[in-house]
Amino acid sequence: MLSRHLHRAGLRAWHMQCLSLGSVGLCIGLWIRAKTVDQDERGNAERRALFVGLWPPTIWLIADSLERAP
């Protein structure tokens, strides 16, 4: 249902796949940045990187559903 609306709005599977790969890069960038902050802020920075690391599979599955949309 949602994938049909996204498809009608002009969003295509390759848009979401690029976004998914971009979020992998963002996660890696945040993880590297977490190693540069002091010990007090490191836990929060690592949690932020892990949270962003959860996005790629979800976004990729949305891309798969957009590919199958009529």
Label this structure with key terms.
elongated, 70 residues, 81% helix
Helix content: over 70%
Biggest β-sheet description: none
Q: Please, what is the average pLDDT?
A: 92
Query: Counting H and I runs of at least 4 residues, what is the number of helices?
Result: 4
Parts with pLDDT < 50 across at least 5 consecutive residues: none
H/E series, N to C?
HHHH
Indicate how many domains the architecture comprises. 1
Q: Span between N and C termini? A: 11 Å
Beta-strand percent range = under 5%
Helices and strands: which structural class? mainly alpha
Shape designation: elongated
Q: Find the count of extended strands (DSSP E, 2+ residues).
A: 0
Structural Rg: 16 Å
In short:
The protein has helices at 2-8, 13-34, 39-53, 55-67.
